[in-house]
């Protein structure tokens, strides 16, 4: 198999810069990181200088993701040799144990770190992920709550909504998503997820909220198809509800109609240049018809 | 007015001016590394961390509260600010404002600061004064009154000499302050050799509010939160959205970026 540098005709500096960019953007493209990083370490290790340690860490975590235990172990050993007493390296060994499913030993590692330094956030986060991986969701939620009392780290809130949704406590999920929306107001995915939670909760007020947040998600990102469908669904749901007044009904039908035209446009664009164009557009229209909530 | 221009021996330039510059610079660099070595570890307690997190949460609520529904905003505001039960009202941290005399860690910090900064300056200033005495070193480019003479011309007993001509001790002090920008260039910002900054801090330190005084911080946060109102950013979002067609350009373009580079 050709090496990365041959395949793309890049030098080691570009590879190193690419790794740095991925590090700064927090990308999780583990396979690519492993490919590039492995070659960088083995071929050009001496040229990297002090950068090599952070690259070891980055590659090790990516290797754990791709199940490359050999590579992870090599990186870990190098780091241990260089930084024998470091909490950060201890956390990495804990992560490797987690990947090998030796959860008790991993827990012992993290407890040791926390004993030394009770404010170490990384260790706490790993403990909660262990609980999650073991499937003990209730305990994980409890630990999460306790942790959140001490620190409202937004990263934690990101993993939080999936728990309550598993347990149908949508109120808690909504709370977590609100926190996320406040810390990242321009992220359309949070708006959309929040709107979906509100839609699932049901009730006229929640439907209105969900419609508004679907619209906000669309405003932040015009191409969010899920939000577009969500807008259509929530608007037609409200319009079909018997409790609303005439004006509200009219408004919502207008919204639903607008959403439908946009959906049609999108599908036309998607099917551009293919023979099945007309058929798929018709299929979309039929689908929209069938999704109409009718008064029963 | 024709001042008699003194012609200084060029040896002075070689053996006095330049050595003083080097000495000052090297002493500064050494001070920087010594201060790094002597730096004491600041350990945060769990309570301090959670307090700072609460303050961050409240600040985010104030700034971005308009993106969440009104009900949720009010609920959070109530949690923080409620008369009997609110977090900011209820929590009184037992904070002893760390005065320099009582808090031992502060005392050692101050001592270390003094030792590394003020003491060398005095010692070296005195040594330079003693070594390079008896002659004029340089001339400052602006005219000075006679009252500066005893200060700047230590060791030169000439009554008629213009006050602009200064001795080596004053050249040393000029260097201490002048090399500050050099230090930033070479050692990066926040370096331990930056004496004038440290002296400024020491002078204003007495008037500065202690960041450990969380009660005051809570009170300030409470007031700020009381004043914030909820202006929902999503009031007319649908109309804004539907005023024009969605921008679907390039959504289904054939070219997808592949590969790493």
From TrEMBL, chain A:
Protein's membrane topology: Peripheral membrane protein
Record has NAD as a keyword: no
Recorded GO CC terms: EMC complex
Domain of life the protein comes from: Eukaryota
Protein's cellular compartments: Endoplasmic reticulum membrane
Domain EMC2 TPR-like: start-end pairs: 90-198
Function: Part of the endoplasmic reticulum membrane protein complex (EMC) that enables the energy-independent insertion into endoplasmic reticulum membranes of newly synthesized membrane proteins.
Subunit comment: Component of the ER membrane protein complex (EMC).
Protein name: ER membrane protein complex subunit 2
Originating species: Myripristis murdjan (pinecone soldierfish)
Organism phylogeny: Eukaryota, Metazoa, Chordata, Craniata, Vertebrata
TrEMBL record, chain B:
Key words of the record: Endoplasmic reticulum, Membrane, Transmembrane, Transmembrane helix
SMART domains: DUF106
Alphabetical list of InterPro entries matching this protein: EMC3, EMC3/TMCO1
Pfam (any one): EMC3_TMCO1
Superkingdom of the source species: Eukaryota
GO process annotations (BP): photoreceptor cell maintenance; protein folding in endoplasmic reticulum; retina development in camera-type eye
Ranges annotated as spanning the membrane: 12-34, 115-136
Subcellular location: Endoplasmic reticulum membrane
GO cellular component, one term: Golgi apparatus
Membrane topology term: Multi-pass membrane protein
Subunit and interaction comment: Component of the ER membrane protein complex (EMC).
Family: Belongs to the EMC3 family.
Protein name: ER membrane protein complex subunit 3
Native organism: Myripristis murdjan (pinecone soldierfish)
Name of the gene this protein is made from: EMC3
